[in-house]
Amino acid sequence: EIVLTQSPGTLSLSPGERATLSCRASQSVSNNYFAWYQQKPGQAPRLLIYDASTRATGIADRFGGSGSGTDFTLTISRLEPEDFAVYFCLQYANSPLTFGGGTKVEI
Amino acid sequence: QVVLVESGGGVVQPGRSLTLSCAASGFTLSRNAMHWVRQAPGKGLEWVALISSDGSIKHYADSVKGRFVISRDTSDNTLFLQMSALRTEDTALYFCARGRQWLLDYWGQGALVTVSS
């Protein structure tokens, strides 16, 4: 199975700053079938980015995804107060689907 | 809008069975694949099972194969996860999620299953 390693585990930033989150795969993710999600306590995870770089419906353009092969990045250009949450990655190219361990973005 | 609501969680003894339900609204189960994903306390997410849009294909994680069964009732627009021979390591928050093929696009808030004697 493809193992996804997210870094850093925690990112301490202030509103207005730029956040860069990384996810590295143990083998190449074909077709860039790679997604990013946001999760807040007590809420359902929300899809932000799919196919590595396509924003999901209704997602603000401050969220951007990039990368291919084994290295993928989620960038939040200017953090808003509501962006402080846990972010995790998913590869859906191979079965079983696998997730990264998550990055917590905190104030 | 798409809404998924899980139910049926609770405390169960090892070796016993439990069935989770996921009520879907805002879309039709027969047009989408559906998944179950779980998150053990303090751990990351683990994909559990998939049922295809026509219900003919089912896939399972090795950790639950032979013990869990995914199914659906299209007349009621409800997804199920029948869990048997439960183990303490099955303790987790269980999410249902809509699939756009293998991509999970909408998730529920989860149902907590605790396996303990």
Outline the fold blueprint.
The complex is a heterodimer of chains A (107) and B (117).
Chain A: E1 4-7, E2 10-12, E3 19-25, E4 34-39, E5 46-50, E6 54-55, E7 63-68, E8 71-76, E9 86-91, E10 98-99, E11 103-106
Parallel strand pairs in A: 2-11
Antiparallel strand pairs in A: 1-3, 3-8, 4-5, 4-9, 5-6, 7-8, 9-10, 9-11
Chain B: E1 3-7, E2 10-12, E3 18-25, E4 33-39, E5 45-51, E6 58-60, E7 68-73, E8 78-83, E9 92-100, E10 103-107, E11 111-115
General description of the model:
The complex is a heterodimer of chains A (107) and B (117). Chain A is mainly β and 107 residues long. Chain A has strands at residues 4-7, 10-12, 19-25, 34-39, 46-50, 54-55, 63-68, 71-76, 86-91, 98-99, 103-106. Chain A contains no helices and eleven strands. In chain A, the strands form two sheets. In chain A, strands 2, 4, 5, 6, 9, 10 and 11 form a seven-stranded mixed beta sheet that branches. Chain A is globular and about 35 Å long. In chain B, strand 7 and strand 8 (78-83) form a beta hairpin. In chain B, 38% of the residues are buried. Chain B has strands at residues 3-7, 10-12, 18-25, 33-39, 45-51, 58-60, 68-73, 78-83, 92-100, 103-107, 111-115. In chain B, strands 2, 4, 5, 6, 9, 10 and 11 form a seven-stranded mixed beta sheet that branches. Chain B has no helices and eleven strands. The interface between A and B is medium-sized, with 22 and 21 residues.
Descriptive terms for the model:
heterodimer, A: 107 residues, mainly beta, 11 strands, 0% helix, B: 117 residues, 4-stranded antiparallel β-sheet
Supply the helix-strand structural class of chain A: mainly beta
Of all protein chain pairs, which has the greatest interface, and how many residues does each chain bring to it? Answer: A-B, 22 and 21 residues
**What's the total helix number of chain B?**
0
The mean pLDDT of chain B is: 95
